[in-house]
Design goal:
Elements (H helix, E strand, L loop, with lengths): L1 H33 L9 E5 L3 E2 L3 E2 L1 H15 L6 E4 L9 H11 L7 E4 L5 H15 L3 E6 L4 H10 L3 E6 L4 H4 L1 H21 L1
Parallel strand pairs: 1-4, 1-6, 4-5, 6-7
Antiparallel strand pairs: 2-3
Length: 198
């Protein structure tokens, strides 16, 4: 019995090492992709939603993403902003909270398009792509947290959009080291699991 047991232990160790190596490669991909800022001229910028706090207040992450979207608009990289995100734990919709922030920061209403149904990044990609096709838009800056933009841009490309990562480096999930580590590992785990299942 002992030789069989030892063989299973060895196999288990190799399986564990292989799993860790696979996860490590995905972590590396997320880390390298996080710094890939492709901000440039585009038909629109798509700001991906984040949590709304009680009292209809934007979370710090939502505020940082919205501010970054406003920056690229004011810098002249695009004339149109798509705000995407439905109602989460607290109302109103993330897209609506972003609209209020941008209005307060001087962005005109005609520059903004609201998409307030998407609950996931994949849904945002599909629904925003539909909006873009109706308007004849082909390229988009994808505004989100740095650890999120690589996967988000990939999902938009699958919908036929020329997606350019536009990270919000001021987001607290990036500026705070503990949060950056947590979300980077979480994003790597998502990538690894979806690749394994596909």
């Amino acid at each position: 019995m002992r030789p069989d047991w030892n063989r299973w232990v060895r196999r288990g160790r190799w399986a564990l090492l292989g799993s860790l190596a696979y996860l490590g490669l995905n972590v590396l991909e997320v880390v390298l992709g996080s710094y890939r800022d492709r901000t440039g001229m585009a038909d629109c910028a798509i700001i991906l939603g984040a949590a709304v706090w009680p009292g209809e207040r934007p979370s710090l992450t939502l505020r940082a993403r919205t501010w970054r979207g406003g920056e690229v608009y004011r810098a002249g990289y695009t004339r149109h902003l798509i705000l995407t995100g439905s109602v989460g734990k607290h109302p109103p919709a993330e897209a609506e909270v972003m609209r209020r922030l941008l209005t307060a920061w001087g962005v005109p209403a005609e520059a903004m398009v609201l998409e307030d149904q998407a609950k996931t990044t994949a849904e945002s990609a599909r629904l925003c792509a539909e909006i873009m096709r109706r308007r004849g838009w082909e390229s988009a800056l994808i505004v989100s947290d740095p650890w999120h933009t690589p996967r988000a841009a990939r999902l938009f490309r699958r919908e036929g959009i020329r997606a350019l990562p536009c990270p919000a480096f001021d987001s607290p999930t990036w500026t705070r080291l503990g949060k950056r580590l947590y979300y980077t590992l979480r994003e790597a785990a998502i990538l690894a699991s979806r690749r394994f299942l596909s």
